[in-house]
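Lab notebook, bench 4. We co-purified these components, and the gel suggests they stay together. Before we commit to crystallization screens, I want a quick structural picture of the whole thing.
Request: model the full complex, all chains together.
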Amino acid sequence: MLNYILMRILRMIPQILLISLLAFVIIQLPPGDYLTERINRLKASGLTVDDAEVERLTRMYGLDKPMHIQYLKWITNIVTKLDFGYSFAFSRPVNEIIGVRMGTTFFISFLAFIVCWSFAIPVGILVAVKQYTFVDYFFTFLGFIGLAVPGFLLALVLMYISFDVFGLKVGGLFSAEYMTAPWSWARVKDFMMHLWLPVLILAIGGTANLIRTLRATMLDELRKQYVTVARAKGLSEFKVLMLYPVRIAINPIVSTFGWLLVWFFSGGTVVEIVLNLDTAGPILWRALMTQDMYTAGAYIVIIGALTAVGSLVSDLMLAAIDPRIRFGGLEA
Amino acid sequence: MQENDQSVLVEIKGLRTYFHLAEGTVRAVDGVDMTMHRKETLGIVGESGCGKSISAYSMMRLVQPPGKIEAGDILFYKTPKDGSSTQSEIVNLAKLDPKGQEIRNIRGNYISMVFQEPMTAMSPVRTVGEQIMEAIILHQKVTKAEAREITIDMLSRVRMSNPQKVVDDYPFQLSGGMRQRAVIAMALSCRPHLLIADEPTTALDVTTEAQILNLMRELQDEFGMAIMYITHNMGVIAEMAENVAVMYMGRVVEQTDVKSIFFNPQHPYTQGLLQSIPQLRDAVAKTEHRRLETIKGMVPDPYSRLKGCPYHPRCPKFISGVCDEVDPPVVRTDDNHLVRCHLYA
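Here is the predicted assembly.
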């Protein structure tokens, strides 16, 4: 088991390096770079650009070097110093820009994930057990609405309702007076007040999806012989469900853990823009628009690493709950 | 059929279990009468879909919607498990809440069941031991450690090699025959008064089948339980049963002891069944190139309900105007021989 985990972690290194290389190449593909674009813009508006300054910046970031040298320099800094480079668009180190925002995004994604699982799992089991009853139809109806309505639209509607009906202004992560204030109890409360909306919106799509998946796998398992056998032992219906079909139907849910978190992480960009949240998603968007390659690259590498770690965690959890996987090839 | 001595264990009267489907109602069990005695082995035989499994499921109250017990009584003569009294309390299983406490105390404790498919009878993600111990802890006042001891003891009683290891194995690590042994150990773990075996050897090869049949007979002597053995295999009936009930389209058409079934079958359906068993010796000797006898026709569409005797369209002894008009009565042709046929009325 330990060997397996070690192997998986070792295998993640080339995976993440490959992701970083691809990200770098794709970001570099459009002609020009941030500096040339910026210089052109300044020249167009009639301003003079200090050639010496341009020269200095170009050399500092190695923009005059061929692409593979640039990549090597970038990735070496990341690996050795955890330094993701300098953001042209924000004129600050990428670490400084992304750090806090990544934290917020991660926090929101994690909350969305908790809401999603704690709602989807019981409801998924319930609708499978009560197949073709009112409960089933009710949640199926809700679920399809949740799947079909895009997050940003939901965000707009909910913002409108909370403003119009409750008089709350829910955009952003903080109210104006707490925006720059140091952390305090009141600020935490304010943060929470702003948090529920993005968390809810992010969670809804995923929840609807999970309910459908769990319902389908539960229905498969409920027909299996071992469920009848468990009943024939005299176990209560609740125990029969929890110890037998649910133990197996939970597998696909656990195996999606890895990318569900990442999906929340990256999938919220549009919602975050609509809600005017100061999180990582809008930063990526801005960075891509302005060819701010180090910021965009950092974001993509971090997402890639998260995906790799997430799938490892998924696989380990699966191995923990399902002996067929544990005995099936982990030792190999 | 009314016997009021202490040897009666289960009495089924007029049991009807129907499945109400969108296409119509399937009368899976349509008026079954049957009596089982303590320590006896009753074989239930009939072709697929004749209602033999559903009768057993009805006794355990395991019939799931859209299936429902429509009418009838299943009287279970319940005596204390510790043998402190032979005085029995009569429980009508057909009237219990299928999810209630009372039936759950009977399931796995007084009546347990071994199913057809050993491959899928246990959850693949829990150990054999966990799944057996569960029933023991549920019905007996024992600690976890004691339940584990009982489990290992049961596994060795079903002649499982290396029970100390198997108790921590997962079902998929066992072969089919081993799994069926584990399932039998699970069913017997609370020493039930009645074991229902629903084609327990159908999915196994003949060698394993013979071992399992021997094992079940040995354990029956050891535990003193009654066995209801459901099968479509006449050979297995000859091997296992003392008494036999032959079922056709949801009802018992003939019930008697095993000798009479083979040497003096009275219902035309039973006669047909016996004639359609291939004789290996004839086939090899090829003395005469005789085609295997079959019962002509097919089991009628399950949604329809025939007037008169349900067997009449296929019956070689069909009496026009009687068999297709009047439902045949149960006739006692001998002390221990019941037939539901107009020929004997």
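Chain A is about 75% helix and 0% strand. Worth comparing against the SEC data before the next meeting. The mean pLDDT of chain A is 83.
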